[in-house]
Design a protein that fits this description.
single chain; about 240 residues; alpha/beta; Rossmann fold; seven-stranded mixed β-sheet; 7 helices; about 20% strand
Length: about 240
């Protein structure tokens, strides 16, 4: 009998994985798939695409009104503000209006793209009292005790302890740290609940850095605000501290 040569089985074409969108490319395992949510706020870096899709939306402005925040914490003309994790400048640019030409706002971020985005906004708007600052999670290149107000907006639940220590280092004695973060409950958008901090958790963590909580309130339906003050030392060894 004539032998029939073995024919190799036909291979099915391999499917290419679907391209990930800028917002959802590195979702946390188990995170729910929601369009334009904030679950990546616990990650280190955002991109310009993230900012367009998430950080500067009208919906966010309606729920986290920067003008309302600065009014509630009594930001004053002439204050120096450091916004740690400033992103697209959502809170930093409105702060610049409040503090006026005698004040200054440092918009700090670890993302080169977002620092450049803020720089473009500042130049386009001819704002002269905002300085974009590129940092690392472990070092913010700003001098000690410079700030009247340090803002941590939607970042405290995910940044490393080194970043928090840096934020506290920037506060002058009597300066205030403002923590804006997601409530630890189910919300239409936001990071996974396991990444969030309840108010008692956030309070205890910031008190461990020598801060005193002086106020708290809600900002929109999904966020709380905690206001802390850096204590005023009665004396510092080797330094003369003038009374205010």
């Amino acid at each position: 009998m004539r032998k029939v040569p073995n024919t190799p089985p036909r291979r099915r074409p391999r499917r290419r994985p679907a391209a990930a969108s800028p917002t959802h490319g590195r979702a946390h395992p188990g995170a729910k798939q929601r369009p334009h949510d904030h679950r990546r706020m616990h990650e280190a870096k955002w991109t310009r695409a993230d900012a367009v899709a998430v950080l500067d939306t009208p919906e966010r402005r309606a729920h986290q009104d920067p003008a309302e925040l600065w009014r509630r914490v009594r930001l004053r003309e002439g204050d120096v503000v450091v916004d740690v994790g400033a992103g697209s400048g959502f809170f930093a640019l409105p702060a610049a209006i409040v503090v006026g030409p005698q004040g200054r706002v440092y918009a700090v971020d670890v993302s080169e793209e977002l620092v450049e985005l803020v720089r473009e906004k500042v130049e386009a708007s001819r704002i002269r009292n905002v300085e974009p600052v590129l940092s690392t999670p472990r070092h913010i290149p700003i001098e000690d005790a410079l700030a009247d107000v340090v803002l941590l907006a939607n970042v405290f639940h995910g940044i490393p302890p080194e970043s928090v220590r840096e934020a506290v280092r920037l506060l002058r004695p009597g300066g205030r740290l403002i923590d804006v973060d997601w409530k630890k409950e189910e919300t239409p958008e936001g990071p996974p609940i396991e990444h969030r901090l309840a108010v008692p958790e956030a309070t205890a963590a910031l008190r461990a850095h020598g801060l005193v909580r002086v106020d708290s309130f809600e900002l929109g339906p999904s966020h709380y605000v905690l206001v802390f003050e850096r204590s005023r030392p009665s004396h510092l060894p080797g330094h003369l501290v003038s009374a205010e």
